[in-house]
Each structure stands twice: as C-alpha cells, then as structure tokens.
Amino acid sequence: MNRRKGKIAELIERQEECVKGLLDDMLYYLNLLDLDTGTNHCKVFTAVYLDGDKTYEQVSEECHLDVRTITRYVRKYDLLAEKLMKKNNTKVENN
Known about the structure:
By secondary structure, this protein is mainly alpha-helical. It has 5 helices and no strands. It has one domain (7-87). Helices cover 73% and strands 0% of the residues. Helix 1 runs antiparallel to helix 2 and helix 2 (16-37) runs antiparallel to helix 3. 18% of the residues are buried.
C-alpha cells in the first residue's frame, strides 16, 4: 500500500528548517498526551514523519496498531499542526 502523504510530510519536504519548531511543539504535546492517556502517539508520529520513508504497514507492525488507526492518527496530527500554526501565527510559504 502506498503511503499517503499528509500536510506535515509535505511541509517537512519543502521547508525543513521552518517546520522544526512546529515539530518540537507537536512532539512535546504528544509526549504529554501519552503520559496522560497511556497512548503511543509520540512513537507513531516519530515513525511516520521523522524516521524516514516508512509505509503505514511498517509503522503498524512496529507500533502494534492497525493501519486504519495509523491513518486516523495522521489526520489528527495534520489537524493539530494546523491549530498550532494558527495559534503561533506561523506563516509557511506556498511553493
């Protein structure tokens, strides 16, 4: 199955330096969420976006989650990124 790119993956490819702060904020938030709820969002986020070109199947095997769950998490991460960018008034160039 081909890996469908989310908005964050596109931002990382285009403007890696500009997105570093956003990724740090997201990892911090996801770490807190994991501690509070006992989930593994930080591990999934790192596997999908920061550990190279892994497919959702590879991430699901690594994190012991269903592929549909990974897809749902990616949509949530995209929404979180949009909210954080609006909150921080981050402007990203559209190339």
